[in-house]
TrEMBL record:
Transmembrane feature ranges: none
Protein name, as recorded: 2-haloacid dehalogenase
Taxonomic lineage from the root: Bacteria, Pseudomonadati, Pseudomonadota, Alphaproteobacteria, Sphingomonadales
UniProt-listed PANTHER family: ALPHA-D-GLUCOSE 1-PHOSPHATE PHOSPHATASE, FLAVIN MONONUCLEOTIDE HYDROLASE 1, CHLOROPLATIC
NCBIfam families: HAD-SF-IA-v3 (TIGR01509)
InterPro entries xrefs: HAD-like_sf, HAD-SF_hydro_IA, HAD_sf
Domain of life: Bacteria
Length: 205
Protein backbone atom coordinates (compact mmCIF):
# COMPACT_ATOMS: atom_id res chain seq x y z
CA UNK A 1 0.00 0.00 0.00
CA UNK A 2 1.20 3.51 -0.84
CA UNK A 3 2.02 5.80 2.07
CA UNK A 4 1.01 8.83 0.04
CA UNK A 5 -1.88 10.66 1.66
CA UNK A 6 -1.59 14.29 0.49
CA UNK A 7 -1.22 16.29 -2.72
CA UNK A 8 1.12 19.29 -2.93
CA UNK A 9 0.84 21.62 -5.94
CA UNK A 10 2.85 24.35 -7.55
CA UNK A 11 0.57 27.21 -8.65
CA UNK A 12 1.98 28.95 -11.74
CA UNK A 13 1.96 26.77 -14.89
CA UNK A 14 0.36 23.91 -12.92
CA UNK A 15 -2.91 25.21 -11.52
CA UNK A 16 -2.97 28.54 -13.39
CA UNK A 17 -1.41 29.90 -16.54
CA UNK A 18 0.95 32.83 -15.99
CA UNK A 19 2.61 35.13 -18.50
CA UNK A 20 3.28 38.90 -18.38
CA UNK A 21 2.22 38.97 -22.04
CA UNK A 22 -1.40 38.68 -20.97
CA UNK A 23 -1.13 42.07 -19.29
CA UNK A 24 1.05 43.80 -21.86
CA UNK A 25 -0.99 42.68 -24.83
CA UNK A 26 -3.57 45.11 -23.47
CA UNK A 27 -1.00 47.88 -23.01
CA UNK A 28 1.38 47.59 -25.99
CA UNK A 29 -0.35 47.13 -29.32
CA UNK A 30 2.71 46.63 -31.51
CA UNK A 31 3.91 43.03 -31.13
CA UNK A 32 7.55 43.73 -31.91
CA UNK A 33 7.65 46.59 -29.41
CA UNK A 34 5.91 44.42 -26.82
CA UNK A 35 8.32 41.51 -27.25
CA UNK A 36 11.32 43.82 -26.97
CA UNK A 37 9.86 45.36 -23.80
CA UNK A 38 9.37 41.91 -22.26
CA UNK A 39 12.85 40.78 -23.29
CA UNK A 40 14.68 43.89 -22.09
CA UNK A 41 12.59 45.71 -19.47
CA UNK A 42 9.93 43.75 -17.57
CA UNK A 43 11.78 40.45 -17.82
CA UNK A 44 11.11 37.22 -15.96
CA UNK A 45 14.44 37.58 -14.17
CA UNK A 46 13.37 41.01 -12.94
CA UNK A 47 10.06 39.60 -11.71
CA UNK A 48 11.82 36.70 -9.97
CA UNK A 49 13.03 39.22 -7.39
CA UNK A 50 9.43 39.51 -6.18
CA UNK A 51 9.19 35.76 -5.73
CA UNK A 52 12.34 35.98 -3.61
CA UNK A 53 10.80 38.59 -1.33
CA UNK A 54 11.68 42.00 -2.76
CA UNK A 55 8.98 44.66 -2.78
CA UNK A 56 7.56 46.00 -6.01
CA UNK A 57 8.13 49.58 -4.87
CA UNK A 58 11.86 48.86 -4.75
CA UNK A 59 12.20 46.85 -7.94
CA UNK A 60 9.99 49.18 -9.98
CA UNK A 61 11.90 52.28 -8.84
CA UNK A 62 15.17 50.66 -9.89
CA UNK A 63 13.74 49.65 -13.26
CA UNK A 64 12.20 53.06 -13.92
CA UNK A 65 15.57 54.66 -13.18
CA UNK A 66 17.01 52.52 -15.98
CA UNK A 67 14.08 52.90 -18.37
CA UNK A 68 12.30 56.17 -17.52
CA UNK A 69 10.57 56.19 -20.91
CA UNK A 70 8.66 53.07 -19.79
CA UNK A 71 7.66 54.33 -16.35
CA UNK A 72 3.91 53.98 -16.86
CA UNK A 73 4.21 50.46 -18.24
CA UNK A 74 6.48 49.36 -15.39
CA UNK A 75 4.21 50.93 -12.78
CA UNK A 76 1.25 48.97 -14.17
CA UNK A 77 2.85 45.61 -13.39
CA UNK A 78 2.20 45.60 -9.65
CA UNK A 79 -1.41 46.79 -9.36
CA UNK A 80 -2.45 44.83 -12.45
CA UNK A 81 -0.50 41.65 -11.68
CA UNK A 82 -3.66 39.52 -11.60
CA UNK A 83 -4.02 40.18 -15.32
CA UNK A 84 -0.86 38.12 -15.89
CA UNK A 85 -2.79 35.08 -14.56
CA UNK A 86 -5.98 35.03 -16.61
CA UNK A 87 -7.22 31.48 -16.30
CA UNK A 88 -6.60 28.02 -14.83
CA UNK A 89 -4.76 25.22 -16.62
CA UNK A 90 -7.35 23.00 -18.34
CA UNK A 91 -8.43 20.07 -16.20
CA UNK A 92 -6.55 21.03 -13.05
CA UNK A 93 -9.34 22.70 -11.08
CA UNK A 94 -11.44 19.59 -11.53
CA UNK A 95 -8.62 17.42 -10.16
CA UNK A 96 -8.27 19.61 -7.07
CA UNK A 97 -12.02 19.49 -6.52
CA UNK A 98 -12.07 15.70 -6.81
CA UNK A 99 -9.20 15.32 -4.37
CA UNK A 100 -10.92 17.62 -1.92
CA UNK A 101 -14.19 15.71 -2.25
CA UNK A 102 -12.31 12.54 -1.33
CA UNK A 103 -10.83 14.21 1.75
CA UNK A 104 -7.26 14.23 0.44
CA UNK A 105 -5.26 16.96 2.23
CA UNK A 106 -4.26 19.69 -0.22
CA UNK A 107 -1.18 21.90 0.06
CA UNK A 108 0.88 24.16 -2.20
CA UNK A 109 4.44 25.43 -2.48
CA UNK A 110 4.62 28.38 -4.85
CA UNK A 111 7.26 30.80 -6.03
CA UNK A 112 5.09 33.90 -5.76
CA UNK A 113 5.43 37.47 -4.51
CA UNK A 114 4.22 37.94 -0.96
CA UNK A 115 2.64 41.22 -2.12
CA UNK A 116 0.91 39.83 -5.19
CA UNK A 117 -0.29 36.61 -3.56
CA UNK A 118 -3.14 37.97 -1.34
CA UNK A 119 -5.08 39.67 -4.18
CA UNK A 120 -4.71 36.59 -6.38
CA UNK A 121 -5.67 34.22 -3.60
CA UNK A 122 -8.73 36.32 -2.86
CA UNK A 123 -9.75 36.26 -6.52
CA UNK A 124 -9.37 32.47 -6.59
CA UNK A 125 -10.65 31.74 -3.08
CA UNK A 126 -13.11 29.20 -4.48
CA UNK A 127 -10.08 27.00 -5.13
CA UNK A 128 -7.56 27.97 -2.47
CA UNK A 129 -10.05 27.73 0.39
CA UNK A 130 -9.77 23.98 -0.18
CA UNK A 131 -6.05 24.04 0.71
CA UNK A 132 -4.93 23.42 4.28
CA UNK A 133 -1.70 25.42 3.95
CA UNK A 134 0.23 27.23 1.22
CA UNK A 135 3.92 28.14 1.41
CA UNK A 136 4.61 31.35 -0.56
CA UNK A 137 8.25 31.98 -1.42
CA UNK A 138 8.02 35.76 -1.17
CA UNK A 139 6.77 35.52 2.40
CA UNK A 140 9.49 33.06 3.38
CA UNK A 141 12.28 34.75 1.39
CA UNK A 142 13.36 31.44 -0.06
CA UNK A 143 12.48 30.02 -3.45
CA UNK A 144 12.25 26.61 -5.06
CA UNK A 145 14.43 24.65 -5.63
CA UNK A 146 16.16 25.71 -2.38
CA UNK A 147 16.00 22.62 -0.11
CA UNK A 148 15.09 24.90 2.81
CA UNK A 149 11.67 25.76 1.39
CA UNK A 150 10.77 22.08 1.09
CA UNK A 151 11.93 21.37 4.63
CA UNK A 152 9.85 24.28 5.91
CA UNK A 153 6.83 23.12 3.90
CA UNK A 154 6.99 19.51 5.08
CA UNK A 155 7.20 20.67 8.67
CA UNK A 156 4.33 23.10 8.25
CA UNK A 157 2.20 20.54 6.41
CA UNK A 158 2.94 17.80 8.91
CA UNK A 159 4.09 15.38 6.22
CA UNK A 160 6.67 12.65 6.63
CA UNK A 161 8.83 11.00 3.97
CA UNK A 162 6.85 9.83 0.93
CA UNK A 163 3.53 11.00 2.38
CA UNK A 164 2.99 13.71 -0.23
CA UNK A 165 3.06 13.84 -4.02
CA UNK A 166 4.44 17.13 -5.36
CA UNK A 167 3.44 18.42 -8.81
CA UNK A 168 5.58 21.11 -10.46
CA UNK A 169 6.35 22.14 -14.05
CA UNK A 170 10.11 22.49 -13.53
CA UNK A 171 12.40 19.47 -13.42
CA UNK A 172 14.81 21.10 -10.93
CA UNK A 173 11.95 21.78 -8.52
CA UNK A 174 10.73 18.19 -8.85
CA UNK A 175 14.22 16.83 -8.25
CA UNK A 176 14.62 18.97 -5.13
CA UNK A 177 11.23 17.79 -3.88
CA UNK A 178 12.28 14.17 -4.34
CA UNK A 179 15.46 14.85 -2.38
CA UNK A 180 13.37 16.41 0.40
CA UNK A 181 11.16 13.35 0.79
CA UNK A 182 8.22 14.21 -1.45
CA UNK A 183 7.23 12.09 -4.45
CA UNK A 184 7.80 14.44 -7.36
CA UNK A 185 5.81 14.53 -10.56
CA UNK A 186 6.83 16.73 -13.51
CA UNK A 187 3.74 18.50 -14.80
CA UNK A 188 3.05 18.00 -18.48
CA UNK A 189 -0.71 18.36 -18.40
CA UNK A 190 -3.75 17.37 -16.37
CA UNK A 191 -3.99 13.92 -17.94
CA UNK A 192 -0.56 12.94 -16.61
CA UNK A 193 -1.36 14.34 -13.17
CA UNK A 194 -4.58 12.34 -13.03
CA UNK A 195 -2.75 9.15 -14.02
CA UNK A 196 -0.12 9.76 -11.32
CA UNK A 197 -2.76 10.36 -8.65
CA UNK A 198 -4.66 7.24 -9.69
CA UNK A 199 -1.45 5.20 -9.49
CA UNK A 200 -0.90 6.46 -5.93
CA UNK A 201 -4.46 5.67 -4.88
CA UNK A 202 -5.47 9.31 -4.36
CA UNK A 203 -8.03 9.24 -7.19
CA UNK A 204 -10.18 6.55 -8.75
CA UNK A 205 -9.78 5.73 -12.41
Amino acid sequence: MSKVRAAVFDVGHVLYDWDPRYLYEALIEDEAVRERFLAEVVTRDWHFQHDAGRLFAETSAELIARFPEHAALIEAFGPRFNETIPHPIPGMIEIVEELDARGVPLFAITNFSGEFWPPFRTRESHLFDRFRAIVVSGDERMVKPDPAIYALALDRFGLGACEGVFIDDRADNVAAANDAGLIGHLFEGAEGVRAKLVSLGLLDK
